[in-house]
Amino acid sequence: MHYRKRILKVMISAIEKNETVQENIDLRKAIAELYKVWKFDATAKTIRNCFKKGGFSIQTDDIDSDDEDAILADLKEKWKTVEGNGRITNDATISDISEVDAELLTASYPIDEEMEV
User: Fold this and answer.
1) How high is the pLDDT of residue 35?
2) Maximal CA-CA distance, the chain
3) In principle, which of 5, 31, 42, 56 could form an S-S bond with 51, CB 3.0–4.6 Å?
4) Is the pLDDT assigned to residue 60 strictly greater than 60?
5) What's the pLDDT at 31?
6) What DSSP line would sit under 39-58, residue for residue?
7) pTM of full prediction above 0.90
């Protein structure tokens, strides 16, 4: 979420300045933004929540979803401002952009034919 927040801020800033929005992010820019997330945004609580969400925690308490909501709250307000000024010409919503890769496969398990015995 922190990475997406940083990328969305760059996009919203470009829209506000009437600049061309870069649709694709090259590897160098992605690594630079991930470095900033790790250095400035990744707190101990963030890391604990990632492990909980991934099922790697034996604790049974709920994941703090307020963090994710707080991360996007300011972006939603900026998006409304940009959208209200007529700078967004298609029907894209902040949810469409922030969840663009939600369905991407990030891990897979080998099928029987791929496993060597």
Assistant:
1) 95
2) 62
3) 56
4) no
5) 93
6) III--HHHHHHHHHHTT---
7) no
